[in-house]
């Protein structure tokens, strides 16, 4: 039995290894006939916003609107528990004007204001432990300034010199440093175990991403996507990054309507990997979010300016499937031979 198990693992790893160097193909599933913001979790659920109205999409329930009294909701993070965070227009106490404020949504309830730290702000990300990070601005000790925050287990930590933009499940955060009482940006910083350290040699302050391996990805102000892994910086392509998953697959675009995927140190155009059967006349215009399984939320458009949001799911290439089936058939034959003996 042990020998058979070892052989089975060898065949599966052989087949997987053959696939590891080639980006998978993708198949599209329709979500809805409009375009909006998208954030996918590892269960394949997608938080969608259109014109400030939030929805949750899943394969079994389809697109379901989220009841909320908040105005102009924007979702920036969505975890595997189905909790979404972001920003919405909110009116602070004793003020006539409204401002974008950090908000959170837990399944079964409405979007609610996350904290009252500043006059305006947003929750930028949430991890699978429920830790929420973001930034606020407003009056602090009689001075107008910017601050970062982390909210974990009901406790709020305020950062005077750091605004986190992304967080992984180890509560490691990446964001921008602050100086001059929050008035100026002081480069990219990483927060780990209570210590803040610079990420040297990486310019810019655009949205960044961090995965469970500690890899960090972002885009410079000159639209040069980069990846920081194991202490080294890699330039990926010219354009912008929209997301990165735990396997280190990075997605984005290099031109309007030209989407790309960085996989195993190679850049692929997603339009060449997408199986267009049943989608004649449609083009892949934008890809915005990716989960641990490699599923992506994307936008399709046609020549008549039609828009459709879809889920792109990776599928096994025929060659890889044939290798896997051949390996399993070989193992079956060996077991049959042993049984006859």
From TrEMBL:
What is the residue range of the signal peptide feature?
Answer: 1-20
Listed A to Z, the keywords are: Signal
Keyword Signal included in the entry's annotation? yes
Report the superkingdom from the record: Bacteria
The protein's name in its UniProt record: PEP-CTERM sorting domain-containing protein
Organism of this sequence: Pseudoduganella guangdongensis
